[in-house]
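chain below, 880 aa
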Amino acid sequence: MSRFFATGTDSESETSSEEEQIVRAPAPVYTFSDDEEETKRVVRSLKEKRYEELEGIIHSLRNHKKIKDFSSALASFEELQKAYSRALSVIQKEENGVAPRFFVRALTELDDWVTTAWNDRDARKAMSKGNSKALTSIRQKLRKYAKDFDMEITKFRENPDLPDDDDERKDTSSSDESDEEEKVKEKPRARRSPEPPRRPPPQDDESSDSMDWGSSSSESSSSSDDEIRGAATLREKFLKRTTERDEDEERDRRRARRERKERAGKVSKKDQADDGGEWETVRKGAATSDKPKMFAKDSDIDAALVVKKLGEISAARGRKRTDRRAQLELLHELRTVAQQHNLGDALQLKLRAATVAALFDYNPKVSDAMKPEYWSRLVENVDAMVTILLAHTDMVLSENITEENEQLVTPPYQVRGCVLTALERLDDEFTKLLKECDPHSNEYVERLKDEVRVSALIDRVCQVVERDGSPQEICRAYLRKIDHLYYKFDPRAVKKDLPAGEETSTKKMENLCKYIYANDDSDRLRTRAILSHIYHHALHDNWFQARDLLLMSHLQENVQHSDPSTQILYNRTMANLGLCAFRRGNVKEAHGCLAELMMTGKPKELLAQGLLPQRQHERSKEQEKIEKQRQMPFHMHINLELLECVYLVSAMLIEIPYMAAHEFDARRRMISKTFYQNLRASERQALVGPPESMREHAVAAARAMRRGDWRACLNFIVNEKMNAKVWDLMVGAENVRAMLGRLIREESLRTYLFTYAHVYASLSLRSLADMFELPRQRVHSLVSKMIINEELLASLDDPSECAILHRSEPTRMQALALQLADKVGNLVDSNERIFEKQGSFFQRGGAPRGEGRQRGERPRDGWARRQRNRRRDEDRAHEE
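prediction:
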């Protein structure tokens, strides 16, 4: 009976097959042992899950770093923070609250990357707007977030090459996984059962139908078995076969690699290859092989051989694929060889000069600063050159000596080179280093400490140049010394009782500048020396010496033809001279020195203390780079707020009395346009609040002085806020405040007399002295001076100590009428001039031109006649 029917005979099967359709059962799906092992579920701990999540985010973060995608890096960093928060409970339980090392490594790498990108200003400017904004955000968030991991980051930076905790975990997990894979590969062979025997063919004769059904069933079963067997055979053919020997070798290799890493104490940058080989680090630049030997083993090393080798090394300078670092190493080795064989100091000097030249060549871009470590090596080499020159009086280092005329073996020694040029370039590189640093960071302070080394080196070079150099070279060396001296304040220079024989900076400046005045052949050095000398005098309140030196030099006439650095020095000198005049109480001179600088509205650019955005046109990159190179280091800046305050207070003390004296004068001129505009803008405001900024304090004080309220004016200028911002920054702040109080009282008295003199018939000098808290002699002097200058029409009565006022000033109505008459006269005069220019176009009916005037009178004569008549009437009224 066929297995497709539950019961019945052959006849029944025939009838059933004819009557109804047979539905076959679906073939069962068999699961093999290989599939069971491949889809085996792996149970992981919570620690592994959290750590894998952190590692995935860190991996994506490193990918974003490679393409400099700050926007995606910001998003990944925020995800990293959230993932670490989720893993915090596991870290506290497993690691005792200490962040895992791979996480600390990721934070440190991210911090270094963000800091490097932030310091590269040129690259920041080239960024897109979104990338730049993302860089700012990630920098702020990272600095805030990294504060919680300061100890871990500091500990990591001490030993950054130690292996991470996850490396060992990965090794163990990888070994476990490999063991699991090995078991998986072994299990199918263990579980696979032998092939079942085939069914023998039937022996008895059966009906044709039953034979057909039986043969079909057996064929289907046998074909399915063949398919299963073929699939298994094909899978075994392509699977990697492993033997126990291969597994043992792989396990030993991993164990040896892990032990080697632990013994070396660091992790290689790349995983080792399967065969145990390691990656080689290829240096950037020229593809150099092993360093060649300096000399042959049996060669006789002398000065000529060393010079020849030096020529070979120097011949590679400037070539495209020259490794500059290798050149420095070769020069250092060559100097060591020369020192070991005692080839003399002259050869050492030549090798040092070649090293200095190679160090200057190490920086390919002239506009960029050198690295600090190479600059320190540069200072050491130049200092060694100066030491050798000072130790040997018979040794000369000069650019005029050719290589053929060099004498390196026997005295007198002659070496080609120039220590003064090396010093000048070293000093310029030091200035570039200061400009590259953030002026508000500790790095700037550390760099500024090196100025002591530079100044000491300049003094020693001056000794060498004074002994061997020409007068022009001595002037160049002295100017470098002046550049580091002129802007520094020396407290000993302002003392009266200075010990005898002690030399101050003022005396040093005078000696250095006088030598340059007498021996300089170029006008540039002399001009810079004069400006530095004036600056130094003004810094120590030597007003008269500084003023006389400026007037005698006539620099104002020709300074516009000088180079930009000299013009910047001139602007700095005028600014400091104005501050000196103000400290000495010379308000008009202070205003005159600062007016040209402050009226432009760009003192920051004129003093080379920064760049202002331009509205009309943008600067090109080349122009901006050139202007940045001209900027002054931060420690040499002049306080711009102090400068503006001094200018506004000086303008107030001059402008307010002048405005009161010429209140009704239509032809009144402005003394200070900037101050006048600020005052007018304040008067237009409907509601004026209490002053906040320094400029608002100056304007409020001017308005109070205009009313004659000197106490309010003094309170606006001298208070705690203004003292902290401005006046405490000056030398002798107490004297400056006392001087300001005196000047404000005197100018307020003058303003009061100009404004209210027409109200009084006589004024008591004692009352004025009590009102403005001034000495009576000073009030008498001020009133007398005003009468002499015809600013006040009055006379003094000495017995009664009164000022008798002559009521000759016009009343307000008369003053307005005079203004109107003056304006009408100007209008008539302009109309007559236009009429005269038009000529015959205005002639009507043959009437003569100029009808209505006196015969023979020209248009200009009519205006002159009216002016004479008006003056005669005014003189007659004055006499009456």
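The chain has a mean pLDDT of 78. The beta strands are 395-398, 413-416, 762-764, 794-797, 802-805.
thats it, cya
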